[in-house]
Request: fold
Amino acid sequence: MTLDSDTPEIESPLEALEDLVISIVEAVVDKEDSVAVSLEQGERSVTVMLETAKSDVGLVIGQSGRVITGIRSILDAFGGKNQMRVDLDFVTEEDAPRRRPRPNRRVPRR
Reply:
């Protein structure tokens, strides 16, 4: 059986997951160019690491967490269909390793 050039290629579940998260989050945020997604795969689980502009974090979380809860529900359904657990985490600048810890400048009491 030959495939026509018009026939779309079949994506792997991980590629489909990444595309799904990007398309949902880009619809919610103001700065679409700042959306980045990376996947950390475990044995039967996948952690989606989501990075957005700081100003868009509140939009992704939503009022009382409704938007992020909805996104996580969609990812749970996706994971159930593909026999995997899908977790969603935000990556922020605070998560990046720091250069050097500050020295302790306190003088000990006697």
About this structure: The chain has a mean pLDDT of 83. The CA atoms of residues 21 and 33 lie 14 Å apart.
